[in-house]
Design brief:
14 helices; MetI-like_sf; transmembrane; cell membrane
Amino acid sequence: MSTVSRISQRFEDSPLVERRDVSLLLVLPGLFFFSAFMFFPMLYLIGISFTNASPANLFTGGSFLTFGDATFVGIRNYVSVLTDGAFWNSFATTWLYVATSVVLKIGLGLLTALVVTGKHVRGKRWMRALIILPMGLPAIFTVTVWRGIFTSAQFGLANQLLGALGFESVAWLQQRWLAFFAYNITEMWLAYPFMVIITVSALQDVDENLHDAAKVDGAGYFARLRHITLPSIKRPVLFASILTAAASFQQFLIPYVFNEGGPGRTNELLIVYGFREAFALSEYGQGAAIMVITVLFIGMFMWVNVKKGRLADGVDG
């Protein structure tokens, strides 16, 4: 009998109390890492948000764990943030970005998944391998490439395409809505492989007998897509959509690398806005308050969607 088998047999033969002790021991490493990298930083962030922390006082005097010489200011940072027009502009821009990017990701993911699962499509395995390729590339590399595509120079790929269609070159990243459009296209490219993987898995579980019965009744492709395919994959796609929406809410790399949320801070998403307040303007306390508010909104968003979508019951429930 192997060592693993002996350990497993001994665990099964042990008393229930002893099993609980062993189970707790196995969970402790995970709890430690969660506390070290998630729980403690979050508590520290909340603590800073109630102080006037800045580089001048956070790292001088006292200790790092007691926020240095920073002083307690109550909810002043939260009041300042919630009465700042820049925050509400960032808030609205972030929600608009989440809505538009998720629609694009679902659309491209669903369309691609339908293609690579089609009965008459050849080379589907190779296509699936190529589709997930963006997931294997560093995000900073991909975002930098897309920034080059949307460069305002005439030789940029996006402007070259416009020229081929007979249009004038445009300054993609110097105009608010053009830059916002570029953000969305890049986000769609980064996230669509995840949507394809989930959708393909869901499509493979659709009962073919339902399609055959619909064909006998004279239903065409689009009728079967609307009344059979889409209802059958609704819950897995909803689950993937909520996850990718949360990722869009936390997007930092695309707006910051493209034009730092510009032009003129008009496209600052909440994470970029908080980062700028903390590190560009050295207002750590206010930046922490922005991040805490952002975390609360993300948490509310996830809770409402999981509750309304009954995702806690399981993807197939």
